[in-house]
Amino acid sequence: MRRSVSSTAARRGAQAVRARIMRQPRPLLLLEFAAVVGLLALLYLSQVAALTSTRQTLLQEQTRQTTLRRQDADLHAQLGRLQSPASVEQRARALGMVPADPAAVVWITLHDASQP
Amino acid sequence: MRHFDSQPNHQPDDDRRRPATSIAGMARRQALLLGLAVVVMVGLLARTAWWQIAQGANLSHRAAQESVRLLTIPAARGAIFDANGVALAVSVTRESVIVDPDLLRATNAMRPAEQALSKALGLPVAALASQMEVPGAYVRLAGADGQPLLLTDTQSATTQAAIDAAQAQGGVVLAPVSIRQYPEGALAGQTLGFVRQSDGAGQYGVEQMENGALAGSPGELYTRVSQSGQPLALAPLRQTAAIPGANVTLTLDANVQLWAAQGLANAVQNTAADGGEVIVLDPSTGGIIAMASTTSFDPNAYQSAPLSSFNNPAVSEVYDPGSVMKAMTMAAGIQAGVITPQTTLFDPGYVDVAGVRIYNFDHNGHGEETMTQVLQHSANVGAVFVAQHVGSAAFYQTLGAFGFGQTTSSGLPGEVRGLRGGGNGENPQLTLAENSFGESIGVTPLQLAQAYAALANGGALMRPHVVASVTADGGLGATTTYAPQVMRQVVSPQTAATVTQMLTQSALRSDAHMALLPGYQIAAKTGTSTPYPNDPGWTYASVVGYAPASHPRFVLLVKLDHPRRVIFGGDAAGPLWRALAQQLFLYYRIPPSQPAG
């Protein structure tokens, strides 16, 4: 059976490569194999490290968010105490102010000069 | 003769045989050792395969049970604000202290821990020692009331360092606890309710009513944890974020609430009453601006408050309203077309109904009087006259339309329907007569305020509500505003306007003394009911009204229970009503009809 030139050449090329590999000393083969495995492992570990680092950052940000929410609540509570009408009245009285007597308030209506 | 070998270093036969034997022996020993090593390695491999492959799934499952946890991420509870944005309820996080007495003893760290915690908690060392120096590995430090002791908001640098050192050494753990704080204290306590510390559930008031929105949704973290229970960043398996609770904004105004509460306390003291309520409504929306009672409690200390104080009497207690009901009777008569403000009757001071003589409250006759004068004199005879002419069916249909005998739909927990006649009792004619002037009928203060608000609002009955809006995600999300809801048209706008005019004219000359507020048109009615016929001095004294009459800005109800120094509505509740009305005119910038200028 006739075989194509390209398949014969490819077969011969593969045989040459196999022969070349087989001619290499065994320790070198093992070293190459270990290097490839090591490279793959390094790649995997770097991905895992990046993922872990991101997760750690996420946890830290969530913790920071929780802390900020707690501070916000504390400030709202503090603001509530300061804004409390009873608290405002107490501070006003401490400054010497007294509640206005509604009956003593004089209402003044300003008339528009353009109106008759 | 000396023998010399012909071959140097020639070994004797024994010597020749020894190397070969030694080499072979060595080879055999090496082979034996190698064989043993192989056997051991194979055994180890087999063992490894057994644990990794055969038992792998089982061990993995057991490891997960020990190290994988489903942690709940608590959701922050939303805050409650008044109409002006003043915080009424806020959740803050404080640290409670958990100690491991066994570990502290083992590491000789008990004394330093007690001293550090003594400073942080503000307690003497002896008080802490009684809780910490016990056998066991878990003690949450608590106060005398059984509640967890909490670190104060801020610590000095020295104290904080001591706490950190105690934590680092082990045996002391700070656990966050959510605490609900009410900066206004007892102000509006019954309207707000409180949050139960044990499970964070809202109880009573707005806390219960809006618990679903306020609580938010807890999240979940399914992850491996370290030995100390901390989640490992290396391996979160599944996480659902917590959704913070929504913030709730009320229609309540803390300023008006304070004036109402302070005024009520003074009025109760001045009249030697048992108690009372004040309600302020916005008639155009039904928004509750203030709701005060003398039986309120401080939600910050709900554990020490009596159980009875949790119920809001404005919605959960009924009483005989007395003559304030005459406004509804007049509305029924005018709506039915059987009377006008100028319709007259002769009032001898009493009327006989079904064999029972009913008197005016003062036992005085007023001769020929108009319907407006019936209100001015608060004449029971005139009220009976109107109810009899309206007829039982139409009268009770009108009362029902005003909301009596059913809840107001405010949504406030514990609301009751009240009691009203309907013509099915043992003496329906007498019941009709008594109901016409507010006796033998049970209403809640909020029902009465809602009914007057309908008159102020052109006859349209609004649903009373205390929640104005809800903003999701702790105030950062979308806001849902609750639109005012018209429940029904009770009477026509013309009827409402007519009754308003009658109330305004009568209030000037009645014991409501509204003439004391010059320049303001006020539609109001006084009421004095006697729930115990054998004790006519025991009264419910009230004034209900709205102002300005032309465009009412507020409805105000003041009710005192069993005032002793003065027993009638106008004398007992009138002064507080006028004082609060004046305060509200100023607050809402409502000038009198005839200002200076």
Notes on the protein architecture:
The complex is a heterodimer of chains A (116) and B (597). Chain A has three helices and no strands. By secondary structure, chain A is mostly helical. The N and C termini of chain A lie far apart (122 Å). The model of chain A has no long low-confidence stretch (mean pLDDT 83). With 597 residues, chain B is an alpha+beta fold. Among the domains of chain B are: 94-121 and 140-179; 254-587, Beta-lactamase. In chain B, helix 14 (380-390) packs across helix 16. The longest helix of chain B is centred in the N-terminal third of the chain and has 42 residues, at 13-54. Classes of the chains: A mainly alpha (116), B alpha+beta (597). Chain A binds chain B through residues 52, 55-56, 58-59, 69-70, 73-74, 76-77, 79-81, 83-86, 89, 100, 102-103, 105-111, and chain B through 76, 79, 86-88, 90-93, 153, 181, 183-185, 187, 231, 233-234, 236, 244, 254-255, 257-258, 474, 579, 582-583, 585-586, 591-592, 595-597.
